[in-house]
User: What shape does this take?
Amino acid sequence: MIYKLKKEFLQEYIDDLIKNYEVWGPKKIGNDVIFSKLEKGSEFTDERTILGPKNFIYPPREKIGEIDDKEVIVIGVKSCDLLGYRMLDDVLGIDPSYAERRKRVHFLNFVCTEPCQYGFCTTFSGPRLMEYEMQFTDIGNYYVIECNNKNLIGKRFEEGGENEIKALEIIMSDFYKKMPPLDVKDLDKKISWNDPKYAEFAKRCISCGACNFACPTCFCFDTYDDNGLYREWDSCILSGFTRMAGNINPRPILDLRLRQRFMHKLKFHYENFSYYLCTGCGRCIETCPVRIDIRDFIRGV
Amino acid sequence: MRSMIPVKSRIIDIYKETDDIKTFIVEKTIDEDPVPGQFYEIYVRDAGEIPISIASWNDGLIFSVKRVGAVTEKLHKLVKGDYIGLRGPYGNGFPEHRRFTVLIAGGIGLPPARSYIEYWLSKGAKDMQLLYGARTPSDIVYKKLLDYWSNYIDVQITVDRGDSTWDGNVGVVTTIFNRIKNKDADFLIIGPEIMMKFSIIELKKMGVSDDNIYLSMERRMKCGFGICGHCNIGRYYVCKDGPVFRYSTIKDIPEAIH
Assistant: This one.
């Protein structure tokens, strides 16, 4: 169903959500915008955060066997992040504890109407998603709301129709002009094990793993014991990622680990799932202290 | 068992095989039976989880573990009656026995080979041969079993370095490839990748096809069912698409046999 909501009523809508749910959204704290628990609708901003809200469905660290059972609404997630979480579902969804938590988190995504500095989402699905619970697009005086969850419809929502769809289409066509898609046709076949870019990136990379942590699609985790068994996000860039007992390491040098990162996203995952494990969010570029740019890599292939 | 939550299992018995290898018999607290070549994630409290191949099973599960890292160090300190955590069985296991099969096992590669030999001997198959390489005579595990198996199948043993007690072959496992009884066979290789690499070179010289060579691969498998991302070899996950791969499947992947 398609609705519209006067922009001035968004705060009230969030206030109403807060009455029934725990609601999280981007909030300005000092100079930063951070996903925070919202006490009132006026705290909400649709600005972009540095990190997406992946932690709601996949905590950076969790005790294995313990799940939080509260229902949470996360409003203001960007479409590129939400698309990434759909991809996480395809891998992590077979884990009962992930599946359980996933059911309890409702993501309400906001469609970007202006390109961001590092994003290249038009290369993949673009900012307007096909799959969502509730998707908001700012069309000026109104938000157009595409809704698949009747329980979350607000009292001020007005029924929308062809005019709203038309408005969305105009905004999207404008967006695609401003952010022309990269050519990724047959990238999975063209990408090489011996691309000189791996060694070139390895000279600059400082193995911090920020690209993995900021990525909405990175799913790798490690387990370890700390008075109980924990799982924690892991990074394929780190030397210990593949190191086995006896100091045997199939990827002993950084070139090979960077190769794994790019090939996993743009070849291996494609071969297994028929889509690239990347949403074009640009967070890996933005957070990289040495500006390793996956767009450069794709263009070079 | 697609879950990260280990099932508590009691250690029924422990045997010392060599200076650094112990065999653990563990209560079978998971209903699902393994097949030869599969593995379990073993959780040792205050240490962590590690993937270990199943060596044998009946009432209990039998694992032989070499002390080589932090978790195995701690596991070796446990005693009869202590508890570990188990998840599994994971992986595809060895292919079904369909014709003469040569098992090439190096070092701690013998326990997974044992799962195959015992299983198929119990089904009446005797068209198997075992080539086993150990570092020294004192590193040989399952000495009694090796004797027992030689009543039914051909067992060839070699050591890298001999001693005064040893009158058998000295040399790496490829030095006894001239004793292979049937080249028109399935070859299962279980051991370090360097051993796989040289075994494959020799088998190719003998005219064995890539399709008839199977490798039991090792990677840092943390989950066991394809979600933690540590064990990629190209598009494959060693934990769920392996650990046993046809050589022809992975031979063109640069990091497969490194």
Summary: Residues 84 and 217 of chain A are 5 Å apart (CA to CA). Chain A has a mean pLDDT of 95.
